[in-house]
Amino acid sequence: MIEARALSMRYGDRRVFRDVDVELADGAFLLVTGPNGSGKTTLLRVLAGLTAPTSGELRRPERHTIGYLGHDPLVYRELTPLENLALFGRLYRLPERGERIGMLLERFGLWGVRHERVSTFSRGMQQRLGLCRVLLHDPQLLLLDEPYNALDAQGAALLDDLLGEDRTHVVATHEPQRVEARATQRLAFA
Amino acid sequence: MSYFGDVVALTRKDLLLELRAKETLPSMLLFVLAALTIFHFALPRGAGHTAALGLLWSALIFTALLGLTRAFVAEREQGMFDALVLAPCDRSAIWLAKSLAVLAFLAAAEVVALPAFAAFFSGIGGRTIAAVALADLGIAAVGTLFGAMAVAGRARELLLPLLFLPMAIPIVVGGVGGYLWFLVLYDAIFVVLAWATFEYVVAEV
């Protein structure tokens, strides 16, 4: 699924990480931990193909098979959940996307607010919508950066269920205890 | 057809965002009307038509710049470039859709600005209207490309004017002189260049 050799990243004089090797088979679960600024987010962006590494080799799947959730939920705040998901459903060429969108909004408890603007949502509701967007195209690889951010107990339980599904996961979190049991591999940044 | 379907969906999204936020177009309208009013009082009586046209083009370029600075606000502030770039659509569709939205805002501002110019100064001929329409294409194409580049930069508020204004000089020359062929040539070159290079601009955004 992912094969990375000697990945290094620098921003100017600042070294973010050096010589990181990652090899993930289908269905693997990589838990990435480390303090703020240690390079967790940058690594996920590199794996997603959003940032080019300074050096190293990376083999990763096609971008339409990747679901990426960053620090922001990556949804348009002036659009409604339906409009956001319809836009991305279109861009991902999803057939029968209406059905899939409805199912995801139901699953994450957003069906009742599907016509309301995202700007009126709490941060936790926005995070739930971000998860809907990530899952919309049923990706094989999930790259999740602090996915438990702002989620209440119910939202966190929904995310727990999601992380138990048969996919390849890379999760960067400050709450490793929530996913520790699922991890098949670990990467700790100092 | 998928490509144009993506362009339509993305353009619709940009127009919807503006319709709801109402931030860009009202600012552009207020700016262009204020600029023309100032120019009306600043230009000495008896000044020629060409001088007035020069002021019109200055007002239009700076109004466009105002719109362009807002064009990627949602993508910048909400990190939406990441989500768009990860989608498997052709990335040039993002540029084309944003250019069409910018073009729509420019046209809307000019629907107000041109009659205002005719009222404040001398009348407007068909050649000037054609020049403005042609200039809009070039402004939208080049400005959208530079707007996307500026999103990635640290000094983005500085970067866009520094990149865009030098590239707008030929547009002003062609517009004031009424050289329509020159504006057509400018559009042809820069629309193709911007369309072909956008992929590389957003690759590292």
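Chain B touches chain A at residues 2, 5-6, 9-10, 13, 16-17, 20-21, 74, 78-80, 82-89, 203-204 (CB under 8 Å).
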